[in-house]
Amino acid sequence: MTCAVAALKAFKDQLTVEQLTTIRQVEVDVGRQYQASTAELESLRSAHARERQDWEIERMKLDRELREVREDLRIARDDLGRERETSAALRRAMVEQSNQHLTLETQVSALRAQGHGLAEEVRGREARVGELEMALERERAVVREREQELREAEGLRRKLHNTVMELKGNIRVFCRVRPVQNEEGMAMIAFPGKESREIVLSQSSETATGGSREAVMPFSFDRVFQPQATQSEVFEEISQLAQSCTDGYNVCIFGYGQTSSGKTYTMEGGASDDAAGMIPRAVRQIFEVTQELKGRGWTYRMEGQFLEIYNETINDLLGTGEIDKKKHEIKHEKNGRTTVTDVVILPLESPSQVRNLLMRAQSRRTVHATLMNERSSRSHSVFTLRVSGNNPLTGESCDGCLNLVDLAGSERLATSGAANDKERLKETQAINKSLSALGDVIAALGEKSAADKGHVPYRNSKLTYLLQNSLSGNSKTLMVLNLSPLAAHLNESLCSLRFATKVVNNTQIGTARKQQARISS
């Protein structure tokens, strides 16, 4: 290019003006053409670059489509392979199904042959079913007759049970001597006879001449329990009274005796099942009996209350406050039901619920220290369980009441050591007055039964007034006399034995009457 320019320059030097003008014109034209060619070349290059880019994009698109086609082809081949395997498996299955079909056809033919025989057997069995249904209906009729006989037998059982209880006496007295904790200071106590009905206390004393004299004092009761007797053995004798409550009779069971004689243990018992007292055992039996009687058409409703009588004042041991300050009044209704105003009455659903009530009541009961015991019960506790029953099948109903009473300690004023303490003195006087009133009521009931007249002093004590309907002629009563075996307690034991003997001598208080509850229509 450089040589061409130099040659062109040398050639210009030799030309004329016109020629130069012409040459310049030609150069201009050539320059223009060159620029035009260059511009066209750049345009072609740009167009070529764009075409190349378009072709590259198209190539990449085609490559991508090729890869997709190849992937689709691979997947199609895989699917084809699986389909071939499935087809082969189906062919094998068809062969197996065909074989099975042939086998089933053979079995169906055999079953059809058996079906004809079974049809004859079914017709025979249907005839037997008809015979069995007729026999079943006859048995149902027998069952209905037996159920009616059972209900009638239940009524007869109630009558016989009440007759047995009346023959035993509507007021009975048991004597129980608590176990000893050590052998020192034991009183002389004997249990003669094989019928466990007697107890003999012996006491030695010095005569005026310096000699020795032994006094032998025998006592007889309906039942005497020696120290080794268990709670279960004691309750076995009491259980029939608990049964009477579900039959619609008022029942009252007393725990009587001096402090430390085992009254509370006898009535409430200990924590274990073997040590359970008369209250939880009686409640458990009543629940068991009522559950059994459900099969004979009876339904029962039970409710309980727990009271104490302290200094001739009634306290609610199930109250919500720490100290019961309400004034409670005793009311005797015409239907023989006794109620106390403003006390908590709880529906009872299970025996365990009663055990919890005992624990709650024990924590609220009035106790104080005496010479006999550092935690002496200074009040009478009365647990009342009312049982109401109804039998729609027979139209019968009953309303019974079980009173389980743990009496306060019966020791005399001098023995309790309360003479120098005004509060304890008041307690002891109130206790002894109520116990004396209880003895007077029982004595008056005995006289009233003999002559069918006379006044019964129920109102002389809150205790006797509260239990009026459970001590009168429509009741069954048991007193459990608890004795301490210690020589130091001998005089108090003798006082308790004499009091209980007074009860024994007045056991005929008339025939108990069942409490019939009205059925609302």
Automatic annotation (TrEMBL):
Coiled-coil spans in chain: 52-86, 133-170
GO biological process, one term: microtubule-based movement
Entries under InterPro entries matching the protein: Kinesin-like_fam (IPR027640), Kinesin_motor_dom (IPR001752), Kinesin_motor_dom_sf (IPR036961), P-loop_NTPase (IPR027417)
UniProtKB keywords: ATP-binding, Coiled coil, Microtubule, Motor protein, Nucleotide-binding
Domain Kinesin motor positions: 170-506
List of residues binding ATP: 257-264
Cellular component GO terms, alphabetical: microtubule
Name listed for the protein in its UniProt record: Kinesin-domain-containing protein
Source species: Calocera cornea HHB12733
